[in-house]
Amino acid sequence: QVQLVESGGGLVQSGDSLRLSCAASGLTFSRYTMAWFRQAPGKEREFVAAVRWSGSSTYSEDSVKGRFTISRDNAKNTVYLQMNSLKPEDTAVYYCAADRQRYSTNYHYSAADYEYWGQGTQVTVSS
């Protein structure tokens, strides 16, 4: 049984930092591109960032470029999202997800392209 468990969310002030973690089990972690999505109240789930299965490259959505960094440790079956210079508009539930394809050569930005999901962790940024 595949499990993705996020942690690290919380309530912070504008300009602060947080580091989210997502621990995976039940799958061969190093074979899958991993991503972070977020969903704010009343909005659709949106792509934030992804890291290739090998860890050799990453991609981030424009609004978080230069502030958020995605990384992974395949030895620990864990993917991270370092979030700096947080803004109130970053407030959302953050989810990690594993790509449907093993060894995917393309980044996927749609939630439908990800098969496994965590339960989410709340990030709230006050102004």
Mind explaining what this structure looks like?
The protein has about 130 residues and is mostly beta strands. Helix content is about 0%, strand content about 55%. The strands form two sheets. Strands 2, 4, 5, 6, 9, 10 and 11 form a seven-stranded mixed β-sheet that branches. It has a four-stranded antiparallel β-sheet with strand order 1-3-8-7, with no helix packed on it. The termini are far apart. The model has no long low-confidence stretch (mean pLDDT about 95).
- Nearest-integer average pLDDT: 96
Shape: globular
What is the share of helical residues?
A: under 10%
In what range is the share of β-strand residues? over 45%
